[in-house]
């Protein structure tokens, strides 16, 4: 059952006056179809599917996108120079941090392209001002910087030498020093596109299902959750599994697989992901519902991902 959500929204007019408007809705509220931009005041309360569980939230602003909306975007700089396409993203699998973007540069129809690795922190995803179904990728990078960025081979595993090359080209950003593994060992970087189709197993090694696609919070530099296509024993439906309940690793054949601490029987009663209702699937109410059900925190509770980076032209 979708929870009732009471929102205490703060509205600001051009004269800077503020008005508080209590709104009661059933699990969702209006946002553009392809983008959820949620600005909540401090008094947001979400009643989850778990009996008696209530989550209190701090103010946040974030936007969620399916990874497929981000991969393939043209990247343009402040001079509107097309620097290439975002060919893929490199995600640190323990934390869900979006660490790098691989830019497809040059070539024609995919032939003769170079693949250059740049820090994700230098890229912004912004909504289209007129069409809510569109978004754009912007950067402060110059064409010369992209041409000088380290090369990579498509879909090959990224090693420490490449990371050192990126650091040498762009400097060491403070966010890259974040302890993304939480003491779980070395960071594991994986291509976002290769996560689709990864088999997910529960603690007993039983097949839960496969990863359908990944949902990102680009301005917060992280993955929010993965959509899992579950098997019959796990409910035979689509569910949204928060990133903190997934662990990716490479098997002996260099193939990505995933494990979850969630028992297979738990998925049968889990909130179902509705691919036709993106405005709800990208709302704070939905994030609260699934994280409460799976007994974990939403991504914004991790200090590294708590604050969205400002859009171009905005003050930090």
Description:
The two termini are 38 Å apart. Strands 3, 6, 14, 15, 16, 17, 18 and 19 form an 8-stranded mixed β-sheet that branches. Strands 7, 8, 9, 10, 11, 12 and 13 form a 7-stranded mixed β-sheet that branches. The chain has a 4-stranded antiparallel β-sheet with strand order 2-1-4-5, covered by helices on one side. The protein has a domain at 66-177: SH3 type barrels (Roll), CATH 2.30.30. It has 316 residues and is mainly beta. The chain is built from 6 helices and 19 strands. A hairpin with a 5-residue loop joins strand 14 and strand 15. The relative contact order is 0.17.
The CATH topology of the domain at 66-177 turns out to be SH3 type barrels
Mean pLDDT across every amino acid position: 78
Instruction: State the fourth-level CATH superfamily of the domain at 66-177.
Output: PRC-barrel domain
Radius of gyration: 20 Å
Instruction: Tell me the strand percentage band.
Output: 35-45%
Report low-confidence residues grouped into runs of 5 or more: 1-52, 54-59, 176-184
CATH architectural designation of the domain at 66-177: Roll
| Level-1 CATH class name of the domain at 66-177 | Mainly Beta
Task: Give helix % range.
Answer: 10-25%
Number of helices: 6
The coarse overall form would be globular
